[in-house]
Amino acid sequence: MTQSLRSTPRGGQIARVLSAGLQAVEPGAAVRHFMRREGHQLIIGDRGYDLNQFQRVLIVGTGKAGTPMTQAAVDILGERLYAGLVIVKEGYTSGALKIGAVSIAEAGHPIPDQRGLQASKRLIELLEGTKAEDFVICLISGGGSALMASPVDDIGLQEMQALTQSLLASGADINEINTMRKHLEQLKGGKLARLAAPSQLATLILSDVVGDALTTIASGPTVPDPTTFEDAFKVLERYNLTQQIPSAVVAYLQRGIQSAEQETPKPDDPLFDRVQNVVIGSNKQAADAAVLQAQREGFNASLLTTYLQGEARYAGRFLGAIARQIVQSDQPIPKPACLVIGGETTVTLQGNGMGGRNQEMALSAVQDLAGLPDVVLISMASDGGDGPTDAAGAVVTGKTLKRARNAGLNPSGYLEANDSYHFFNALGDLLKIGPTQTNVNDLAFIFAF
Question: What is the CA radius of gyration of the chain?
């Protein structure tokens, strides 16, 4: 818990609200809620599968929640499980590199690395041997797109790393980034489903995108892809990146536009007749649980939105304005108040500082909250890691600006440098909760007493 929460009269209550949101999307419990076994019958969502009809049952997957999802699936399948491979973020294995018959591989995030490349090659080899008599269960969660690094033969890992860094720095949103990945990699945009055919495929998905769009979560490896090579090329043009990224990427996309490279499978592809996709957890589920806990704690609580998007620094100013409105007029909700906000913002890099979108959003709200009594704003990544940092986010109160000035810190300067991490670290106001083993986008909270 941060210094700000420790010094807040309702710090314990606030901590319980945050915890309730995360516990509601605990990956293992989510898998068990949507998947169960009754003898030789496996029920996933609203569909039943006779395990006796399959020669082999395999588990594959990618994402930050891969370890607890795998453990739950292995427990359910028991002796019927043949083999598997799931790729997770470094440090998210819970110390286990093998769960039953399933190997757990670590990889880098958000920039793909060599470990992800090697693990993806192993996953491809596993799926290439599948037959109609096999049943593949795919476990997908947030972060899976970067972890499952599988560039096409004409593009190397370094080119994908350079592209990813350029897109992240440009302020491109996750839909745009994943549109690129779908057309430059071997397992995304429905291509995992294509590779697994003709086996039966069922995918359990923990959503980390606004609106739970299946085509966007982990770049939609098992769902039809509505985007095209032309859409991917337009992303580069939109952010003026055609001259900045590796020429091999540009050349491959241009060949795709000319139909010289195979497109991603589309909604009318019959291969999806053998595919089931089930969302087992989402940002709204976490937000609703936080609202319920806040009400139990005595707050007037409400969900504002789970569709917060745009530049983090502008979103922070918006939330700061809402906090001031609550304090001064008891609108849109009377004190003691708790507003819960979900979504995912973006950051356009202008400086060389350190931070993440949640920390930047919190930093941009410091001026707007200045002087407000008994108000707390928290922005956090549900996976516990905001950007390339060890913090989930940060905490801002009406006293943050005064404390910063007393410490010789200028929030505007840190914001211009995109250096939110060092600003909040100096104040002891980073929210550090460690890897949560889940990932359903970001959550923000406005508390006023």
Answer: 22
